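## Example record

The block below lists the input lines for one assembly entry, exactly as stored, with component labels intact.
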Amino acid sequence: MARPPASESARETRKNVLLDAAIALWLRHPERIPGVAEVAMAAKVAKGTIYLYFKSKEDLLLAAHERNTMIFFAALIKRASQPEAMTLDDMMRLTQRHIVDVPTFLPLATLVAGLMHKGITPESAQVFEQHMSERLSTAGALLCQQFKLPDAAHGVRLLMQSYALILGLWQLVGGERPMCTNEEIGAMLHPNYTLGLDDALRSLWYGMINRER
Amino acid sequence: MARPPASESARETRKNVLLDAAIALWLRHPERIPGVAEVAMAAKVAKGTIYLYFKSKEDLLLAAHERNTMIFFAALIKRASQPEAMTLDDMMRLTQRHIVDVPTFLPLATLVAGLMHKGITPESAQVFEQHMSERLSTAGALLCQQFKLPDAAHGVRLLMQSYALILGLWQLVGGERPMCTNEEIGAMLHPNYTLGLDDALRSLWYGMINRER
Amino acid sequence: MARPPASESARETRKNVLLDAAIALWLRHPERIPGVAEVAMAAKVAKGTIYLYFKSKEDLLLAAHERNTMIFFAALIKRASQPEAMTLDDMMRLTQRHIVDVPTFLPLATLVAGLMHKGITPESAQVFEQHMSERLSTAGALLCQQFKLPDAAHGVRLLMQSYALILGLWQLVGGERPMCTNEEIGAMLHPNYTLGLDDALRSLWYGMINRER
Amino acid sequence: MARPPASESARETRKNVLLDAAIALWLRHPERIPGVAEVAMAAKVAKGTIYLYFKSKEDLLLAAHERNTMIFFAALIKRASQPEAMTLDDMMRLTQRHIVDVPTFLPLATLVAGLMHKGITPESAQVFEQHMSERLSTAGALLCQQFKLPDAAHGVRLLMQSYALILGLWQLVGGERPMCTNEEIGAMLHPNYTLGLDDALRSLWYGMINRER
DNA sequence: AATGAATGAGGTTTCATTCAT
DNA sequence: CATGAATGAAACCTCATTCAT
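Predicted structure tokens for the full assembly:
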């Protein structure tokens, strides 16, 4: 019923409301991807309104994923821009807080990876990749300084490989279960995943920084 | 009233025919997941017949993924059982041949990860995990010997982490494109992926083997 | 719930059931074109079933129109095949009974003419025209004999022009009202249409037969 | 608070701009009825503005049709008011120029006939019919004089029947194709239609004038 | 008077799954 | 065992119309 002005920022706000609704819905029923109708209802807008903001359902999911990702990058870049030297533990904390502990992050990333080939227009995919590249470069360069890597490319690679590890490990260990609705299993699994991830990342970073090439 | 006794192997044969058909179809049209009707037609059976062999479409995809995985494990276990000491390059070769070079392996793995929460019965999921665990333990133990790791758990972890890296990196770099139909891009990308993967795995293994814990 | 055999005739029967349902529905609510969902419900089949028999809603409407038309042609051809000489009054009676008195004939013809360009595949349109041409030729040739026209082409033309008159006049006079739900107006109009049509057809036929060319 | 007094003619002007836009759009893409949004864009007004001038989309189409029709009538009445005796060829020329050669006339007439029962308010329909009746009477009376028909009713009837023939024949022969975008077919068809129409009208008029009643 | 974002009913279509034969 | 017509839920998307600004 709201009739917001047409400004660009209002548009972004509205988009975020829709993404929030979609995410909330998915968290409430993790066993199924919410349909457009449900998202609309949850956001208290009409079904058609969604299509004013997203080209398709998959586009919306991609946007949600992008938002998650961008939040992580923002935090990473912010920390890496500070003068105090970063440690591996800082990275772990950032990862934990903005990826592992965000309940929709990894499921959504997995879904997007799996469904990307369905309802995503090449344009949307390209925009997404563009944004990713930008942040990846920025963050990679900063990491390179922080960890004294030979060059910026190493920073980017380290970042990508870390993310790959985080995502792949999650799919291996936890992804098969529907976002751990079952408390018992979830409780058992999550530490495992976190511990395993910690171990893996430490190995990767150690190798990345120390092995000669 | 006894169920046909000799049919068990025939049943497996038939299952494989269906999986072959599904895979072949997907390779022919990588941009879309083949529908049950198409698979049935390609395998020259009726739609309903598929449901005599698989509980659902997702179950079929999971079976295809499992078959891919088991082939890899068989090769790995076979190699690791030989007395000649393995090198990291041996691992790379196995990975390349049985994972990276199998065109449906990683897309299928991605899809299965993304759709696992949809039409898979808990039983099927459990069976799959059971099989995986067995091979993982076996292979992990062998790797432990080959690479002189502290204990079998390290072998298992190394294996999982490597696979996670392979899968995650593929999703990051190549998975968004529909199995690289575009020759030009594919040609450009694949080496990148392979190279990047090589770099990543070497770092991981180096760190895993050398860092103290 | 019925599970008929796959025979061609059964298919035709089923098609007719669907057409009947659509027609009946339209007669019950002449102010709106029935939706596919309603037709399905009325025919007690599932929505998807309709698409096993018709490519689209428009295709269904076209089929209904074709059925109407074919019934008229069948009657005309049957009568014109009999040895007794036909009179103009015979034509009028046939027209009245199989076109004017069939409540959906002219509305449907009008609708089809107006919507033909929307959801009809070229193939369907071509099939329809093919069928029309065949009957038109047959009936035209017979009329040519019956009314001693110079050649068969005159018979075809006479038929087309008569039909054009019937349809055009109906659109002018009665088509704008939703199939005459209003009794008062309908009662007033229908005789008008019939009378006017009678007059028009007599003029057309008189001119067609008598004027020299 | 008085409504703008000078605006009545401005209102008509604006209406015509909208009709022009709609017609132009339809001519550019004959395969689809232009949507309100497109019309608005083409006329450089906002979507909502259209509804300040027309009650509905169908209302707009009806208005366009009415404009076409009124232009034809004006020409007919003008010619029939001149003292020189009219011939059938004069009628043919008028028909050709103001109906057949106006590319949107017959498609629009067909569409209006087919959709009349949808979004037209009874008021609009009545106004349209009122205007039609007036011109029909006027023109009919003039034709009656020109062609020495028994009475004015015959003139009206002749006019209606002729129009019915024109419209019906067009729907039969050319209406199913989307306004003949295909040059080849169009070229083939149009002469056919014109010739067939010529033949039909001559028969109708011959019978109308000569047969005794 | 003009705007255009929002509406939401309406439509088409797909497709995994069932079940009578 | 095999079949494939039927199912029917679910999805997506369009677009004429409204109404707060």
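The domain at 56-211 of chain A is CATH 1.10.357.10 (Tetracycline Repressor; domain 2). Confidence is low (pLDDT under 50) at residues 1-5, 178-190 of chain A.
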